[in-house]
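JOB MANIFEST
job_type = single_chain_structure
chain_count = 1
residues = 527
[input]
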Amino acid sequence: MSFSRINTSSATLTKNRTEESITPTSGMCVTCIDGCIGMCEIGKSAYRGHEVIYPQPFGVITTAAEKKFPVDYSHFNIMGTASGAFGIEADSDKAIFPAVNLEVNIGHDKGIKFKLPWLISGIGSTNIAKNNWEGLAIGSALAGTGLTIGENVVGMDPETKFKGGKIVDTVDLKRRVKLYKDNQRDGYGAIIVQANVEDSRLKVQQYAIDKLGVQCVELKWGQGAKDIGGEVKIKDLKKAQMLYDRGYIVLPNPHDPTVIAAFQKGAFKEFERHSRVGMVTEEGFAETIEGLREAGAKYIFLKTGAYRPVDLARAIAFASKYKLDLLTVDAAGGGTGMSPWRMMNEWGVPPVELHTLVYQYAKQLADRGKYLPAISVNGGFTFEDQIFKALAMGAPYVKMVGMARAPIAAAMFGKNIGQTIEAQQVPVYIERFGNTKDEIFVTASTLRKELGDKEFDKLPTGAIGLYTYYERLAQGLRQLMAGSRKFSLEYMSRNDIASLTPEAARVSGIQYIMDVDEDEASRILNF
């Protein structure tokens, strides 16, 4: 059984000539024939080389792996029950699904409160993020959830101003923070500023704390999409030169006269901007944490990727030892930008395996009475059933899940619907609901009542799209939790899910479904 697709993907805009006859090990056509112009990835690489490493077209897409892992969250089912209730009186008139409480409080002082147990865990300098930020920020704030400003936003901003190597002004970061903070309600949610190697050198977080009033900052060790630094493509020579001068790795060298001449002739149309990989040491980590606290950071998070198990152990240990407020663990296969396509598919620890290790390592520390921050896990989550399973898998240590691609998509779809409304060209499959945002978006009447006509009318449809998507997830999660008779998040447990295969049970430690309740069932039958 093959888990991977090779040599052809919509992500790299490639395909096989003999689509029905493919060699499974190489992904090549069974008959590779002289005369073919090279539609497959090998063929495209023969004339565009390194450009084909990345998903395309850059700037208008998000991407995630298409590899089928041997065990995934679909290999578990949610266990409901017909009796009892946790977190509410076992009364049919009271234990109804709208009564399920989805609020979660995190932080060393429990001072961060979210209405819903998820956050967007890192949207950085890519065009797809920047072009949809209005919807993402306002929608997240209205929903009372967290939003993380990802890496390289300040460094990529042409309008950022420096003096003596320090940031004195930055338009894009200010805009991103303000859009979120201006739309927060009743103190719910949090805007988080992330930093990679370049951001740390530029003192981005210190600026955000001092000048923008940001309370939450996050260190970034990596993500689930790749084990190298973030990358984007640059179509403008002057911008490529600016980024090179700011210390980024830019390929090819935009100051090289030969490269400039080739670019101007059209031999290539995009420069690559790469970030550096971090080099984690405990001494350096401790110094960074101390520096951020001295700068005024109230809450400090850490995000790590799908690295080796020893790196996960290091992340959990450091988060415990230095009293961090949230640890986010991002599993393999994810991605919101333009990570190398083969790397995205073939690198890292997949979600079920990584999240199982999170539980095991956290339990080791908890059993010894060690401090544990709240933990968030990422893994390509899109709907309420997956969120439920991830919360159950990591219970009681995992408090939230992180998402990125799905919220971006919801905000993007909402924005696009708004554009069709303005153009009076609403597609027929949407037009059956109406032609205005009040008619099309099912949450519009609620938002209009809560915000008032004036504020609602100013809302971008991208924000309404994200808010409405979140509303669906919340209701769906409440229904699943009510079915398991868990009316508050703290009552969720690993017993709320069951493995559908012996292999899933072996990997996760979650009971095989035929073994669930075995002893209790025997006791009931022995009357």
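[summary]
The domain at 73-230+275-409 is CATH 3.20.20.70 (TIM Barrel).
DSSP finds 22 helices and 17 strands in the chain.
exit_status = 0
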